[in-house]
Design a protein that fits this description.
Layout: H1 3-9, H2 24-35, E1 46-51, H3 54-63, H4 69-72, E2 75-82, H5 84-92, H6 102-125, E3 129-133, H7 140-146, E4 153-162, H8 176-179, H9 189-205, H10 215-223, H11 231-237
Antiparallel strand pairs: 1-2, 2-4, 3-4
Helix pairs in contact: 2-6
Domain Nitroreductase: 9-163
GO molecular function, one term: FMN reductase (NADPH) activity
EC number: 1.5.1.38
Length: 243
């Protein structure tokens, strides 16, 4: 196992950070590493907002569900799916642009996620900790207004960056047998049941606080109710009509 694989397998979310700034030069390197990610047809359909205004960070922390580490981390980034830049460039080149296609939404979202994961890996290789913040989609319009995002741009998630002040354990993942299937989709209920036992043992032994739960139990709140039902209308209003 080489150092890159070892790094990727050691990822964990960090929510407590030292009061230590990240050098601007390093932040730029991380963004450039993000730009090295694969991108559909070289569209590069993403924009990253570096939120430095303390009041704005406090407001985003509340909009994201009271996640205080958004305000306390060294740097906070919002990764946005951006179809404004490539469609306008295409128009300037003489194209009769068709906007609002579902595929454009998918391309921009996938591009953004790939770019962000490169940033995360690069950050961790430099000893930084990261935490993705999907909670900004709790109030995506308010976040968009705060960041002055134009039409055809939407905030996918945030990312906290900083030097860790704690060392949380690596959370177990599903066994490879559950997700790697040969030729055809196959039943994985036995592997999931075994993984529930693994996660229950993890939750009861972890240093950050134990609880009596497992993987399947933790999924219940995500599927008991409609999750963020406002997102469809929000995306349509952003110009992602899903035609």
């Amino acid at each position: 196992m080489n150092d890159v694989i070892k790094l990727l397998k050691s990822h964990r979310s960090v929510r407590k950070f030292k009061d230590q700034p990240i050098a601007r030069e390093l932040l730029i390197e991380l963004i450039q590493a993000g730009q090295g990610a694969a991108t559909s047809s070289h569209v590069q359909a993403y924009t990253v907002i570096h939120v430095t205004n303390p009041a704005n960070r406090e407001q985003i922390a509340e909009l994201a569900g009271g996640q205080s580490y958004i305000a306390s981390c060294a740097d906070f980034l919002v990764f946005c799916a951006d179809m404004k830049r490539p469609t306008e460039a295409s128009e300037r080149a003489g194209s009769n642009v068709v906007r609002g296609m579902t595929e454009q939404l998918l391309v921009a979202t996938v591009d953004t996620a790939l770019m962000a994961q490169n940033v995360a890996t690069a950050a961790e290789s430099e000893g930084l900790g990261i935490c993705y913040i999907g909670g900004i989609r709790n109030n995506p319009q308010a976040v968009s207004d705060l960041l002055k995002l134009p039409e055809h741009v939407y905030p996918v998630f945030g990312m906290c960056l900083g030097y860790p002040s704690h060392e949380p354990e690596v959370k177990p993942r599903l066994p490879v047998e559950a997700i790697l299937k040969e030729d055809y989709y196959s039943d994985d209920s036995a592997q999931v049941q075994a993984f529930d036992d693994t996660m229950q043992a993890y939750y009861q032994s972890r240093s950050s606080g134990n609880k009596d739960s497992d993987w399947s139990q933790n999924l219940k709140p995500l599927f008991d109710n409609k999750l963020r039902p406002h997102m469809r209308d929000f995306l349509i209003q952003r110009g992602f009509e899903m035609k």
